[in-house]
Every structure is written in structure tokens, then in C-alpha cells.
Amino acid sequence: MKKEFQIADRWLPFEIHPDTPVEGVLWRDYFPGMNPDLFFQQLDDRGKKMGVRFGPQPLMSNSRLAMEGGEFAKAHGRYDAYHAAVFRAYFTDCKDIGDRSVILELAKEVELDVVALDAALEGNIYLPHLVETRRDAKANGFSAAPTFVIEGYGALSGAQPLDTFRDILRG
Description:
With about 170 residues, the chain is mostly helical. Helices cover about 50% and strands about 5% of the residues.
């Protein structure tokens, strides 16, 4: 008999490097000895097999505004489109997602109310939620993104091959 699965997802924001300066920092300065060009070339090589492209992103952006924007998008039913736009802007187009104008441009692209988002960002409306989810993640031992929590299995951190999930779900 074939197992039936009910899959529900809930995306929670998690700043991996909350100490990143607002203006961002070059990868090579944050991680001395890292070769960002090689790192992103390897990501691109792996990603292109799945139709995902990675550009030579030199900057590790402060992601707080992007994540606050994500919570705004979630509250307005546009999270998936926003998330995809932010991913593409940062990893493919090499834009600085710590730049408010970039976030507002992406919001407009996915048909969010840019004026309302700008006001939410100005008022740090979603910042307490970011702080709370980071605290909860740390309290539960999570330190990487993405982290998947699978009922009956536990946590799985980092990008994983699809077969890993298939194996876990087949149990």
C-alpha cells in the first residue's frame, strides 16, 4: 500500500549573519581566504542543471530589509513571488538586497504595495518577528538556512539533493 503524505510548509526568516554591516561586506573580507569567484562558479555549475543561475556576487548583503520585505509579502499573499524575485536579484543579477531601493523595486515587480512596504520598513514593523524567529531557531539548535524540519525525522540543514528528501519521506 502506498503511503499518503500531507506536506505543509512554513517559511520563517533567519538571519545567518546578523552582524553584516548595513552596507554589506565583500565576501573575501568576511571570510578571509575565500575565493568568491570560484565559490559562485561552483554554485552556478550545480545550479544550472536545475535551471538556477548564480552570478559572481562579490557582496554579502545585509539581508534584514529583504527578510522584513518577505514577511510583508507573506502578509499580503505574495511571498512565493517575492522570495523568487529576491533570490534572482541577489544570486543571479548580483544586486544588493540590503539596499532599500532594490527591495522596493522587487516589491513593485511582484505587485506589492510599495508605499505600504516602505512604511513598514521605516517603522521596523516586522523586525520583532525576525528577532523572535532567530531566538527560537538558536534555542532549537538551528544555525543554517535552509533548515527543514520533517515530522518523524527531525531537522535537516543546508541545501540537499531531492533524493535526500525522497529517502526520508519513504522512511
